[in-house]
Write a structure and sequence with these properties.
- This protein is mainly alpha-helical and 408 residues long.
- It has a domain at 277-408: Serine Threonine Protein Phosphatase 5, Tetratricopeptide repeat (Alpha Horseshoe).
- The protein has 19 helices and eight strands.
- Strands 1-2 form a two-stranded antiparallel sheet. It has a two-stranded antiparallel ribbon with strand order 3-4.
- The protein is elongated and about 75 Å long.
């Protein structure tokens, strides 16, 4: 009799059983013919069924269905049984992908990347790097910690760092918010170079990849950075942290020698959110360079005067002198950057005084050069648009060793 009742109960297809069975089929993790990484065609064709509701749920409310299966070997082919309770709303899944889909996308995108290893088991790191919020939530709810270390291409680090380095521009800030909800720490650094999430934003090529720099796409690119920088600051990530090479995120971006116009809004956002322009860094690109301030680095890489003005207005020490005895005016003179030299002399009175010009003349060549003639030109002592008041040395002067003393 009991067997007959059980048979009767199982023969009645409830709505929940239909959804669970549908979901079990949807998250079939197997990939046939692993060397070729070909997905099962039937798995490709199956979709979510958002119209179905669990018993007792208001049909007009948001529909919740269970999602990603637990971690299993990459070559398994048997179906998984989803959890009995809902985890996330399907609309939160931009990709609407299975673990198998994510693994396949990962292989397709990164198999030629340095440090890549063939994946053996799906885990939260793959979903964080590929921008799959639903899959990430499932794995965090069922089998792994949010602050565990995960393998992704050449990284073996926290999920926050993987997302900052690899997550695409459409999903980066959604991923950050999800990790915050699960209690992730945003003060972590990478094992290899001690880089923060701020540092890794610079290396996230997915953000800028395939951007044509049309106004529309460039605005979207900037918007992602604006939100990411603001969010990371709010959750405690140190915007002035240095990596093992002594570089800050601001020095990363100022190290760019091209695409200055495209990067300028990001420089402004970093400065507006607390990036310190007086943080000294030692740059090692084409020869070592002692950048006592961000202004010295920006002048060296010939950033436009609009960026130099931004840096000055955020309180940089315009009279700072590096270990080579060069101030900002001297660096511009050495690089024969007449535009920057003229701008400094016409807009910053404390850098156009006799002491600063004397330092710059050491790098101007003989008196017949354009640079030397520009430095020797007489100027009005009062500048109409003097930016000196913004400088941290507006009431002090720097000697050759970089020490400051009050004016007499």
């Amino acid at each position: 009799m009991a067997q007959q009742q059980n048979h009767t109960l199982h023969s009645i297809p409830s709505v929940q059983n239909q959804v669970l069975q549908h979901h079990s089929n949807q998250y079939h993790p197997g990939i046939q013919n692993q060397p070729g990484l070909q997905r099962n065609n039937t798995m490709r064709q199956q979709q979510y069924s958002p119209q179905q509701n669990f018993p007792g749920q208001n049909p007009k409310s948001n529909t919740y269905i269970p999602n990603q299966p637990p971690s299993q070997p990459f070559n398994n082919s048997y179906p998984h049984h989803p959890p009995q309770r809902p985890v996330v709303h399907p609309s939160q899944n931009p990709y609407k992908c299975t673990c198998a889909d994510i693994m396949t996308k990962y292989v397709e995108e990164f198999q030629t990347t340095r440090g890549y290893e063939m994946p053996g088991e799906c885990h939260a790191g793959y979903h964080a790097g590929m921008g799959d919020v639903v899959g990430l939530r499932w794995h965090l709810c069922h089998d792994r910690r949010v602050d565990g270390n995960y393998k992704f291409v050449d990284m073996s680090d926290k999920l926050v760092l993987i997302a900052a380095r690899y997550c695409g521009r459409k999903y980066l800030n959604i991923m950050f918010q999800c990790l915050k909800e699960y209690g992730a720490s945003f003060e972590v650094t990478t094992k290899k170079k001690g880089q923060t999430a701020f540092h890794l934003l610079f290396f996230n090529k997915v953000l800028s990849n395939k951007i044509t720099y049309s106004d529309d796409k460039l605005n979207k690119y900037h918007k992602v950075y604006f939100h990411a920088i603001k969010f990371l600051k709010e959750v405690g990530c140190n915007i002035n942290a240095k990596d093992e090479d002594g570089m800050t995120v601001l020095s990363y971006f100022l190290g760019e020698k091209f695409l200055h116009a495209q990067r300028t809004p990001i420089i402004q956002t970093l400065l507006d959110n607390g990036a310190d322009p007086n943080m000294p860094v030692n740059i090692k690109d084409w020869g070592e360079f002692d950048a006592k301030t961000s202004l010295l680095q920006a002048v060296r890489n010939k950033w436009p005067t609009t960026v130099l003005e931004l840096i000055v207005k955020h309180g940089v020490d315009v009279k700072a002198i590096n270990n080579e005895g060069m101030n900002a005016l001297a660096i511009a003179t050495q690089h024969k950057d007449m535009t920057t030299m003229t701008w400094m002399l016409d807009n910053i009175s404390i850098i156009s005084d006799s002491d600063s010009i004397k330092i710059a003349k050491k790098f101007a060549g003989n008196f017949t050069t354009k640079e030397s003639q520009l430095l020797s030109k007489k100027r009005n002592k009062v500048l109409p648009n003097d930016l000196s008041s913004f400088s941290s040395t507006s009431s002090s002067t720097s000697n050759v060793n970089g020490n400051t003393s009050k004016k007499k």
